[in-house]
Design a protein that fits this description.
With about 425 residues, this protein is of the alpha+beta class. Helices cover about 15% and strands about 15% of the residues. It has four domains: about 160 residues, no CATH class; about 80 residues, Immunoglobulins (Immunoglobulin-like, Sandwich), CATH 2.60.40; about 45 residues, no CATH class; about 110 residues, no CATH class. The strands form six sheets. Strands 4-1-8-6 form a four-stranded mixed sheet, with no helix packed on it. The protein has a four-stranded antiparallel sheet with strand order 3-2-5-7, with no helix packed on it. The longest helix has 17 residues.
């Protein structure tokens, strides 16, 4: 908002009266040296009224045409009711406030009354001593035509509008009504919230006493109320208001605490997957490499299970068992009557049993089985021969897995009881086989 100062007020008021219409010899404007210049200083920059007057007006008037019908050497030549927004009347009193004589109409009653009250005679400015009369405007607080367009306020901008030598707040006519905007902040926090008022006034306060706040002494206008406090957001974020002749209570806000996590990094042991921070936000912990998958229970990368490329025996295998690349047995079938399987090939079965294990040599793949060992009936091999402790095992786990499968087959054939199998497995699990 543009403001006037008191010094500018008086100089402007005295000067502006000389800038009004002067098409006849009644006024002293045809030769400015005897008019405005007499009191307001002629400058080389201007051929017309005093330089000081122009300088003062240029500080708050945005265009020459605010006072002049056109830019030139002559002042305003039309200040009638048809064009009340030009010339002195625009800022120094309304056309309606002027006298009823043909001379004073539209000249700006406030400015004329100002000179009258200062003891200036009409002849001081006019070639004829025109009767001054008593041009009393309606009051200091009345808006002249320019005010709404320029954004001025009649009681706060440094003009003596009614010419009674009392400017703005010093004039009893300026009794401006004021109002209050108030409300409450509730929610996760109420006290200690900064409330900012912007618009026609810029103020700030802090909520106390259960979240209450208020802004008093406000004049009509538009405002915006905004709450703020680090770590919280508010609903609504702000509230725009139009204050017009009444208090505005209940401008309320609800606060919600914003959770701020202490870290955005996964824990040191997490290799993959997602962890959740204390605010419930996901933290991505990365991906496992090729051949590994993430165990989402503990966020660790684990080797993918082996998937065999085939579940079929090789083309040359006629019988027995082959092992795939994952260590799984592939059953290749049985030989016919009178045959036994040797190296996955069916051959004729001789009748003798060299190792006395109950399996004839023709069917016995393990011809040196120690006496008394339990053997699998289809191949004559004991558990130790089928799953040797010192075999070429990838690791202890692979050994234990193969042992479990073999002992299960012995149980299925009725060669071992479950208890016997459990005892054997317990011993082998704690052994160093395969390590």
């Amino acid at each position: 908002m543009k403001k006037f100062n008191c010094k500018a007020l008086f100089l402007t008021c005295i000067c502006a009266v000389f800038m009004v219409i002067g098409a006849t010899d009644t006024f002293a404007y045809s030769t400015f040296g005897g008019g405005c210049d007499t009191c307001h200083n002629t400058g080389d920059e201007f051929k017309g009224p005093g330089k000081l007057l122009h300088d003062l007006h240029n500080t708050f008037v945005s265009s020459c045409t605010r006072c002049h019908n056109s830019v030139g050497d002559n002042p305003v030549t039309s200040l009638t009711a048809d064009t009340p927004d030009r010339g002195c009347v625009g800022c120094h009193g309304r056309f309606e406030d002027a006298g009823n004589d043909s001379i004073s109409e539209g000249l700006g009653a406030g400015l004329r009354q100002y000179h009258e009250n200062k003891g200036e005679s009409c002849g001081g400015c006019h070639s004829d001593n025109v009767p001054g009369g008593d041009y009393t405007p309606v009051g200091e607080a009345v808006f002249p035509p320019f005010y709404p367009e320029e954004g001025f306020l009649p009681c706060t901008d440094g003009l003596d509008n009614d010419g009674n030598l009392l400017a703005d707040g010093k004039d009893p006519d300026c009794s401006v009504e004021t109002y209050t905007i108030s409300g409450i902040v509730s929610g996760d926090v109420s006290d200690g919230v900064t409330i900012t008022l912007s618009g026609n006034a810029d103020e700030a306060t802090v909520t106390t006493g259960g979240g209450t706040y208020s802004f008093s002494g406000l004049t009509d206008g538009t405002y915006t109320v905004t709450p703020s406090l680090p770590g919280y957001f508010f609903n609504p974020e702000n509230t725009p208001l139009s204050l017009s002749g009444a208090e505005i209570p209940n401008v309320d806000f609800t606060s919600v605490e914003v959770c701020v996590p202490t870290t955005t990094e996964c824990s040191a042991v997490a290799e993959c997957g997602v962890e959740v921070d204390e605010c419930g936000n996901d933290i991505l912990c990365g991906d496992c490499g090729s051949g590994f998958s993430c165990n989402e229970t503990d966020n660790l990368c684990e080797e993918d299970p082996c998937v065999p490329t085939t579940t079929e025996c090789s083309a040359s295998a006629e019988c027995g068992v082959e092992v795939d690349e994952c260590g799984n047995d592939i059953l290749c079938g049985d030989c016919g009557s009178g045959e036994h399987c040797v190296d996955n090939i069916c051959i004729d079965t001789p009748d003798n049993d060299d190792d006395s294990d109950g399996v004839t040599n023709g069917n016995d793949k393990c011809l040196d089985t120690p006496f008394g060992e339990i053997v699998y009936p289809s191949n004559g091999c004991s558990i130790e021969q089928l799953v040797p402790c010192d075999g070429d095992w990838k690791n202890h786990g692979k050994y234990v897995s193969a042992l479990a499968k073999t002992t299960n087959r012995f149980v299925e054939q009725g060669l071992l009881t479950e208890d016997e199998k459990d005892v054997l497995m317990g011993e082998m699990v704690s052994s160093d086989c395969g390590k």
